[in-house]
Amino acid sequence: MPDSIDNQLVAEVARELVLQLASQELPLFRANSEAYFKNPDKALAEQKGKDDMLGFGSGEVVVLLTPIALSVVTEVVKFIVEEVKKSAKDESSALISHTVKKVFKKFRPEEKKKDHDKKADEKKTPPALTPDQLERVRDMALKKARQLKLSEARAKLLADAVIGSLVVDA
Amino acid sequence: MSSPPSATPQPRLNPFLFPSDTDFRFILLIVSVLGSSLYTFNLAYFGVFGEAHRQAILNCYAAHPLEGDLITQSIAATQCLKPFEQRQAAWLLSGVSLLAFAAIVIYWITPALKIRRERLRRLSARDAPEVVVYLAGLYREAGLRRSPQYVWNPLNPTISGLAFGRLGRYYVALTGGLVTQFYMDQAAFRAVVLHELAHLRNADVDKTYFTVAIWQAYVILVLLPLCVLTLLDSLGNPLETFNTFWRMLALALLVYLTRNAILRARELYADARASVWDGPSGALNRVIAALPRPKHRKLARLSTHPHPDFRSHNLVETSVLFRLNFWDAFGTGLATTIALSELDSFAILLLPPAQILLSPVLVALLFAPLAVGVVGLGAWRTVFAALVKGDKPNGLGRAGFGLGLGIVGGQLLAFRSALADITPAVDWNESAISFAFIVLWSIVLLASLFLFMRWIAAGASTWLEVSSTSTALRRIMALGLVITSGILALGLAALFGVREVFEDFPLILLAVLSDIALLGSTFIVTGNSWWVFIGLASLWFFPLSAWLWRAHRAPVSIRSWVYLDPLSQALAPSNYSPLRPWLALILGLASGLLFCGLLAAARIILPFVIPEATRDTDDYRLMFNFGQIGIAAMMQIIPAVVAAAWVKRLGALHGLFAAFVGGCVMAAGIIVLSSLVNRELDLEFIQLVFLLVVNGGALLALPISLIVALLAGWARQLQPTK
Predict the structure, then answer these.
(1) Mean pLDDT within B393-397
(2) Does A59 touch chain B if contact means CB atoms closer than 8 Å?
């Protein structure tokens, strides 16, 4: 995980996705995200599961969305960081980080504000992603989810949810 | 996937009224490991000190040659060998202690290692508050005094639960996958957790983990060293290696299969227990039906988990937990004989030379409770299930046969036989007689155990009917098993003792069989024994004495406590026939009085027929005295046959009782008439007459009653039913 990527941002966005698509995994989220940030490859590999000889249960391995969502969001954040860097070459890393955050709806409390307040803030608000960029984000999310063996239907849902989490131009 | 049963057609039998198969098999495992490890440590001892030991034997027998007073010389030679034997005993004891210590250590540290290795951590309200709240109440539902500690690995996506721990500290581990089930399919989550709590309630967690620990210790300290020793030995003596190797393989297989049998049995009991809490609408059946299926169905019978289909069937019909398996009985015989044979050899090393002949008795005394604990209790359960269903108990004779085969096989596998195999035969004639004797002995053993199992069933059936509460059932069963153990110990002590003497000295057997006087003396010695009396009297006393509690008698099927689930409607009582000891008593009295009348008549008539000079000789007196005893013994056959043919239920035992009553009256008649004639009463004479008449009559009446009862049963079956 490159240092430039804000783990907290990734975790919070991924948590939103898990809440939407697999709320049953919320109790597992904290542990899974900690394990993911510690060693992403290992966390994704543990999806294979371990069954104890003396255990009881179907032994079926649940494909957890959490590590996949974390991985997908990491990729997406990386992409957005690169895109923001391109448009704001001279800005400080703190500002870039702030700008990246604002690309996600979750970090735009302004939307909840009244219209006149919104207008006042507009100048400070970074621009939303373009449709082209959104399309690329969707493709990237879909590809990553497929690569991590998520079923096609769930992969599409995840990709759509990622797009849904981003700010879109009105 | 099968759907949960909508309605249970028949209420399920309660398997928890009896100690479980897990307990029996656990005992078997300990016994097999003990036997197998003593075998290995013996081998290791001879590998290290073999030459020195052999030299010591040669030196001691050279110093005390078997000439002149054989017994004194033999004892002196054995005494000379004692220091070497004590060294061997210390070696064996150290090996077994090390094994036990290693097993205890592994058992003790396993929970901590598991927690660490599987990265388990406490399930806290911070992680999954709803799950924690839900689990907090479940232990009460499971009837546990306190909640186990719930731990989990949120990174494990498998849907699985596991109860583990050690004495006083128990855990239930949940996987991340299982916790997600709580939100997706709460019924399935509940079923899995209840199953794990059922393991705790059934108290099988300690047994399970000790089983696993002892297996691991066995592999490390017994199996691997044995493999190394065998490999090293194979360079020197291939025949010895072969003899060791196949025995080693068989013993290791026995331990392995016993381990798996424990693990399978515990699952079935946990399923049964959890199904009660889960209720008919629960998801347990669904979860079990979804369990992964083994690739080879037949191999599943030997694996650590029962086949899911078998488990599903067990949820609907628990009678599978009441069956006594042939292989369980065989394994019991095998494991116990090997272990006790090794223990016997071990005891010989420690016993003073003069007491070595006691070892078969010790073996029988140890063997009987172990065998009865497994096979006898299994017989009680089988009879219980059959009585509730109104069926005849099946497979018990077969189990007795299995036990016998196990004993024969165990003797073949034991270390002593391995040594015998590599010792060249001294005399082919002796070997042939010895072999024929062993074959005959084995047939007698098999037949005896076949009948012994049928007898346990007879006793169980009469006593189960008068068990009015589950507590009464347990008490009666415990008492019954003690009596059964005693009888088996007596029978086996006699059989093992006979084998011990005649196997090593087959020519003595020929001498006894070819001399009528010697044969007669053997019969008198056997008949004049209180132990034989107790053994024979217990045969009828234990089953028929249930009649004294007939006020409590009722068909087992109408008692509500015999079922696992509450009864929704009254059940039809199963058919059963009453006991008729009164009839046997009257028949015995009548035959006894008839004998007394005839004897009195003979006493009056004979002085007129036989001259006094003849009557005053010792030969006449001897013939008269033993003649009246012989006739009394034979006359007991009459009431025995009538009772065996007449009484429908347990005819053979009624016959034996009738013979006993008749025998007592006849013995009293002989004693009273003798005292009237001789005007003296000798206590020794009273005992001799009583024991010879009663024991002799019982020994004659027993096989005849059995045959008559069998024929009468067939005749009744052939009669057209109205």
Answers:
(1) 85
(2) yes
Which residues in chain A (6-25) have CB-CB distances under 8 A to chain B?
22-25
Question: How distant is the Cα of A6 from the closest Cα of chain B, in angstroms?
Answer: 22
Separation CA B161–CA B195 (nearest Å): 9
- The DSSP letter of residue B171 is E
DSSP letter (8 states) at residue B69: S
Cα–Cα dist B379/B400, whole Å = 10
Give the pairing of strands B161-166 and B149-153. unpaired
Residue B223 has what DSSP assignment? I
**At CB < 8 Å, which residues of chain B contact A?**
118, 127-128, 131, 154-162, 164, 173, 175-184, 188, 192, 195-196, 208, 212, 263, 267, 270, 287, 290-292, 304
Q: What angle do CA B73, B75, B77 make, to 5 degrees?
A: 70
Confidence tier at A95 by pLDDT (50, 70, 90)? confident
Chain-chain contact of B127 with A31 (C-beta, under 8 angstroms):
yes
State which H helix or E strand residue B585 sits in.
helix B581-609
Q: For residues B662 and B592, is the Cβ–Cβ distance under 8 A? A: yes
Q: Which pair of tokens denotes residue A59?
A: 């032994």
Q: Is residue A169 very low, low, confident or very high in pLDDT (cuts 50, 70, 90)? A: low
Give the ipTM of the model, two decimals please.
0.81
Location of structure tokens 């169980």:
B460
Nearest CA of chain A to the CA of B118: how many Å? 9
Query: Across all residues in chain B, what is the average pLDDT?
Result: 85
Would you say residue A170 has pLDDT above 60? no
Q: What are phi and psi of B539, to 5 degrees?
A: -60, -40
Radius of gyration from C-alpha coordinates of chain B = 31
pLDDT at B415 over 70: no
Lowest mean pLDDT, pick from B48-52, B283-287, B505-509, B545-549: B505-509
**A52 to B162: CB separation less than 8 angstroms, yes or no:** yes
Whether residue A33 lies within 8 A of chain B, CB to CB, comes out as: no
CB atoms under 10 Å from CB of B70, counted, come to: 9
Task: Enumerate the β-bridge partners of residue B166.
Answer: B169
What is the H or E stretch that residue B94 is in?
helix B70-117
Taking residues B60-80, what's their average pLDDT? 76
Q: What is the pLDDT of residue B1?
A: 40
Residues A101-130 have pLDDT tens digits of 777 776 666 555 455 555 555 545 556 678
For helices B581-609 and B651-678, give the axis angle rounded to 10 degrees. 30
Other residues' Cβ atoms within 10 Å of the Cβ of residue B442: 16
Q: What six digits make up the tokens of B475?
A: 């008490």
Q: Which of B435-439, B529-533, B543-547 has the lowest mean pLDDT?
A: B435-439
Residue A85: half-sphere exposure toward Cβ, Cα within 13 Å: 9
**What are the start-end ranges of the E strands in B430-529?**
none
